[in-house]
Amino acid sequence: MAMTESIVRRAVETDVPAMAQIVCDWEAATEWVPDTYSLNESENFLREVMPNRDIWVVGTPVQGYLSLNADEGRIGMLYCSARGSGFGKALMERAKDGRDFLWLTTQACNDNAQRFYKREGFVDVGSFPVEPPNTLPEIRMEWRA
Fold this sequence. Notes:
Blueprint: E1 8-10, H1 16-29, H2 39-49, E2 54-58, E3 64-69, E4 74-80, H3 87-96, E5 101-107, H4 111-119, E6 123-128, E7 138-144
Helix pairs in contact: 1-2
């Protein structure tokens, strides 16, 4: 895959199909992830939450996105089309900008995500109740400036 720009910008409606495709591709390529949402359902979900969250995308075309509930300081979603691309780091830097605390949840079995979050300064603070339709055990991770 050719490297694209790492400019982070606010997501717009026309980014939704690319964002949903990134999630669906990741789920299809990840053996332990149950099929939860179709591409159409993912697109609908993203459109529904977009007005209530800060959502940023990176890459041209879109290669990753991060969704943040700014009121709670909770990162709800961070997905990139390729690991090691620098896109996740660029998105995380944008989320941290101007904040002194963030938190997120990740699947307890997602070692790759946990390693990334730890490199970004997040620490595991314990288990987190699974919220349907998710069925995999989750952990909560927090970052403080």
